């Protein structure tokens, strides 16, 4: 098998701290499972600004376009808060997403049994939960024109944003959701507001078109997004893959993620069109930010970033078995009671450090091999 090329961008704050633990897992996969990665490392965010005066150098951008997958830690932090908007750390991440055209954002919400007390929902409602929200990431109301704030000619002002979706934009993200469903329990629920929005009507029609013409084997249902929000909290296990637009996806994915506990546990993937080798352009990153309040203290939970690597193994490298091995190792250490500070319940205990969590996961991996 040819080597798997991976660009690692640790970024700022706790990004480098959690990425160190991910790199230990990558080394383990190479040594013990024969998975050889071509790993390169580069700077993004404030770290890139400090070195190059921009949050993402052109060479780094070019490299990101070539590799099979990019793995990013986090960007930003108080040291960069006063920078000009054009060179803010977040702009580095936005440039990656935009130039790689990463239109499909995958946010899993998975309940690890050992953490089910963490949820604000009843244990039986979330125990065993494993759903995936697919959010359209490059279009919709965050990008539509016209936009702006203008005088309304009556002495007041008017703020305008435009929800706009094309056939192609809807079909490609729908395909991405159906593909995912085939690897899971073969079920997609599409969410929009076709009752009050024309873009929602088109969304429903085009998702149905892709379904009928290309994925008739997958079970498709439609739901209004407001009802979807209710159902996610009432009975989340009725879903498998949910596909929705940028705005609804932003809100619904945050809502679904929090069903299951801590920010330190949440991975994500952003996928684009297939490259020549058939693999999609891909960026994997934890959902959390750079956590300046705990940076440099060894307190960061590396699990979100390690689970992001697992997603890369599954969706970019066709290594679903190794991805599952990592997820099982995480499950085991949690079941054994190993906790970073963010996972401590009210009754306390002694948290492990970032590297302590890495040690435990590597031990669990070694036991599994
Ligand atoms: P944050 O996600 O960095 O932190 C929120 C809270 O969760 C903090 O109390 C933090 O300590 C905790 N937390 C986050 N990740 C954790 C982990 N792995 N283990 C343990 N605790 C964890 O969000 P916040 O504070 O709003 O933003 C901080 C900086 O990060 C800002 O500069 C923001 O712009 C940036 N940011 C970057 C993102 C990215 O790189 N994708 C996403 C969100 C924020
Ligand atoms: Mg959000």
UniProtKB/TrEMBL annotation:
Q: Where does substrate bind?
A: 97, 107, 135, 226
Record keywords: Oxidoreductase included?
yes
Q: Which residues bind Mg(2+)?
A: 226, 250, 254
Q: Which residues form a coiled coil?
A: none
Signal sequence annotation = none
Membership in a protein family: Belongs to the isocitrate and isopropylmalate dehydrogenases family. LeuB type 1 subfamily.
Q: Name it.
A: 3-isopropylmalate dehydrogenase
